[in-house]
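Standup notes
- HV: blocked on the assembly model, inputs below
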Amino acid sequence: MAEKILLIDDETEFLEIMAERMNNRGMDVTTVASPKEALKKVQSENYDAIIVDLMMPEMDGLQTLKALKQINPDVQIIMLTGHATVEKGIEAMKLGAMDLLEKPADLNSLSEKIHKAKARKMILVEKKTEDKIKNIISSKGW
Amino acid sequence: MNGQIENLSISGLQDQYAGLQYFGAMSASIAHEIKNALAITNENAGLMEDLSLMAIKSGQSLEPERIARLAKKVMDQIKRADNIVKKMSQFAHSVDEPVKVVNLSEVTELALELGRRSAASFSITLGPVKCDGSFSIQTNPFILMNLLWLLIKSAFRRVNSDKTIEVVVSKEGSKVSIAILNLLKNQLDSEQDKAQNDQIAKLADLLNADVYMNNTDKIVINIMQNNKLK
């Protein structure tokens, strides 16, 4: 099944081309140029990975990361950055980013990280389902 | 050795760092812009490669119009990056000489252009510099841009609902002015404002400039055109 991706970047031309290249690789990509719009999308949709630019007007990448994690703590986020400082990278990982890639990014590396993100998300979903079933079994006292 | 360490007083370091901080912040912003242009160039080239590989695989020919459009996008990004590098070069040369005769609206526009991305991160737009005529001024362009940027940053919390800051350059007699307009009347200074105001006062003093920013809906820098710097 195709990976479902949300791509967030204020550079619309970057969004367009990235989406086309990722679609060509069989991914299902949604793009948004505004972090606020991304937060709305995440409330109603489930994504295998979210790719976020670290520096955007309106709300920076770290703020977006925090807000996305608040909506869905299991969401797998890959940060993209034009000028990564070590501190920003560490902060992003501490806030729960899965990985960080520097722009211009190699699409093959990004695709690998997306596959990893999907696998991680599936493990989390399976674990949650297992916990739910255990809870139901123990509460019913069968 | 101990003497050297003692000489590194905190206020001395702060003074040294203030200019470097401005230089660093603007350089980081420029680097980000260049990286964005490179990223788009990279993806356009990557898409051309993808389309070529897909054409080889399917045995179908490439659409020449599509390739021409992608090549145009690459060229547009090269132009964009070239413009950014030109600005970076102008900015880097602003520290070549302590005193220089410069075009005031050009220096003001450069300071604004460099700060536009940073302002956008606060959802604030810096409009183009409005200027009646061309005025040259003898000054230190780097310190002037640093002062202007500190004043614009201090104006971020005072912007009107349209979130646009206007900057007007004008001349009256032998005096030139840069006015930052479309602001709300300023509130009481916070501790952060006070620290920033100290820095503003030091830079204004170095430039022999007068800064008016209190109890008003605008910020104005006045400088004598044939300025003798301290």
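- HV (later): unblocked. Chain B has a mean pLDDT of 88. Residues 98-224 of chain B form a domain with the Heat Shock Protein 90 fold (CATH 3.30.565.10).
- Next: hand off to the docking folks.
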